[in-house]
Write a structure and sequence with these properties.
The complex is a heterodimer of chains A (286) and B (200).
Chain A (H helix, E strand, L loop, with lengths): L14 E7 L2 E7 L2 H7 L8 E2 L7 E8 L8 E6 L2 E6 L2 H19 L3 E11 L2 E6 L6 H10 L3 E4 L2 E5 L4 E2 L5 E5 L3 E5 L8 E2 L6 E9 L8 E3 L1 H9 L9 H12 L3 E7 L2 H13 L11
Parallel strand pairs in A: 2-4, 8-15, 9-14, 15-17
Antiparallel strand pairs in A: 1-2, 1-3, 4-5, 5-6, 7-8, 7-9, 7-10, 10-11, 12-13, 16-17
Chain B lengths: L10 E5 L2 E6 L4 E5 L1 H9 L6 H11 L8 H14 L20 H7 L9 E5 L36 H4 L38
The chains are: A alpha+beta (286), B alpha+beta (200).
């Protein structure tokens, strides 16, 4: 058995920055300035430097084993908890990015993060709730190629007004078990990025199954709301807030559930369905 | 019989004609359709099942072939299974006069698009709600199933609801550290320690 290295004294990680994202102060510290600089690329879209005296959550990247001939290893902490360790900084930063997103999604005041892809079509949003492995990123990419405007491939972010706000990080397409391909929506897909809030028009809980026939069934507003709640980050911590936001978002919104085959064909069907709905043809949104 | 709805600690939200209910006691959430919502509202411990049947007959549009009595008993059964009303008891169907027990009654009911009247899920935990990080064997926070919605449902056909998945056990990789991670003062930029790691 290999002995685990002694944990570092995290307060000696004196290179620090605090950023603000969706109302949450995220602190990052390390004993290597370059690591901090690279960590900024892991912050959620739209982050800004914060002058807050503290942070809601601290993340620490400790570099250890430094010295002549030594190989540097990295340890990632969230507060007191070791999240990951290893010799590959890129892996550590990927873990940091994921953990920061999760933290922001949990703590954001006035925002509800739902695990879902989202695009806008005409004047309303199409929301694709689903957890990892259900094919939502592939479907989002297909919808963007078909002309929809990109909002998010990971979190649908709702305000307390019930509107959907863009969360436009690069598309992260799973490539086998352990790899992801990051795609720029504008340059790689020729798509557009959403720039402002939009109301929901359709919630489609669609799972990929090879050779599946497109035959979704319609859900009631409540059942659709339950689908969103089942993918909500803060469902257990802030259920009343989650319910109220989802209820505002779902008022009069149609929900579908079912299976799809190939993403391109499903994207066409979804957009055809949206075209038949009055909510996508209102004058403006919001 | 006068059914009694649970009200303790429940979080409720009306969405159009449906009702969402969250139970922080077991972290489950239910969606009651229009029928179940109406029946649940009537379960105040003062109204009898007959009263509720009469109310539903007046206020809820039922599919052809489904009587208000059948619909109410079915809804009551689902509400009981979801622990949203007090247990009905074995003699709960004594008043229907058909000689069938409740299971027979429920088995014989046409679905008619109205059932299940109650869908139940387990709310996702934080760890299960995040996408797994690529190329890592994630410790602690993310070592879990990517599908958190795993509860046995109340006759739900919802794919996110009815899946039966078990979150993977989390790994214990939380060493103790010597000092608090949350200082009260945030220095901006300190002098760089003499560290020049090679980033691989």
């Amino acid at each position: 058995m290999t002995a685990r290295p002694a944990p570092p004294d995290l307060l000696t990680l004196t290179v620090r920055r605090v950023v603000r994202s969706h109302g949450v102060e995220i602190g990052v510290r390390s004993n290597d300035r370059d690591v901090i600089d690279r960590a900024m690329s892991c912050m959620p879209t739209g982050w800004e430097e914060s002058a807050a005296p503290g942070a809601d959550t601290w993340f620490s990247v400790a570099c250890t084993g430094v010295g002549a001939g030594s190989r540097v290893s990295y340890q990632l902490y969230r507060e007191h908890q070791l999240l990951d360790s290893g010799f590959r900084l890129q892996r550590i930063l990927t873990r940091l990015e994921s953990a920061v997103r999760l933290t922001v999604g949990r703590l954001s005041p006035g925002r509800l993060f739902v695990h879902a892809g989202a695009v806008t079509w005409r004047n309303a949003a199409i929301i694709l709730p689903g957890l990892s492995g259900t094919g939502k990123t592939t479907l989002v990419a297909a919808l963007v190629r078909a002309g929809a405007t990109y909002c998010s491939d990971e979190y649908a972010v709702f305000g307390d007004d019930g509107l959907l706000y863009p969360y436009t990080r690069p598309l992260s397409v799973r490539q086998g078990e352990h790899r992801r391909l990051h795609q720029n929506v504008e340059t790689d897909l020729g798509g557009r990025l959403a720039s402002g809030p939009v109301r929901a028009g359709l919630v489609a809980s669609i799972r990929y199954r090879p050779l599946a026939t497109w035959a979704p069934r319609t859900l009631s507003s409540g059942a659709g709301a339950l689908t969103l709640f089942s993918s909500t980050l803060a469902a257990r911590e802030r259920p009343a807030f989650a319910f109220s936001v989802i209820a505002r978002a779902m008022a009069g919104v149609v929900s579908l559930e079912g299976e799809r085959g190939e993403a391109e064909a499903a994207a066409d069907r979804i957009l055809e369905h949206a075209d038949t709905m009055s909510s996508f043809h209102r004058e403006s949104s919001p | 019989m006068k059914p009694v709805a649970r009200t303790d600690r429940l979080v409720k939200q009306v969405v159009d004609n449906d009702t969402l209910v969250y139970d922080p006691g077991d972290d489950t959430a239910c969606c009651l359709n229009a029928l179940a919502s109406e029946v649940w509202r009537q379960c105040d411990g003062r109204r009898s099942v007959d009263d509720i049947v009469a109310h539903v007959g007046r206020t809820v549009k039922l599919p052809d072939g489904l009587t208000a009595e059948e619909a109410v008993w079915r809804a009551l059964s689902e509400l009981e299974d979801a622990t949203l009303i007090a247990p009905l008891g074995e003699d709960a169907t004594a008043g229907i006069g058909s000689g069938m027990n409740r299971r027979d009654l429920l088995k014989g009911l046409a679905m008619a698009g109205m059932f299940p009247a109650v869908q139940k899920i387990t709310a996702p935990s934080i760890t299960s709600a995040m996408s797994p990080a690529p190329s890592s064997s994630p410790p602690a926070a993310s070592a879990s199933s990517s599908h958190p919605v795993v509860s046995a449902s109340v006759s739900s056909s919802h794919p996110l609801v009815s899946a039966s998945l078990t979150p993977a056990p989390t790994q214990s990789v939380t060493p103790s550290i010597t000092q608090s991670m949350t200082p009260t003062v945030t220095p901006t930029m300190f002098p760089l320690p003499s560290v020049t790691p090679s980033h691989t």
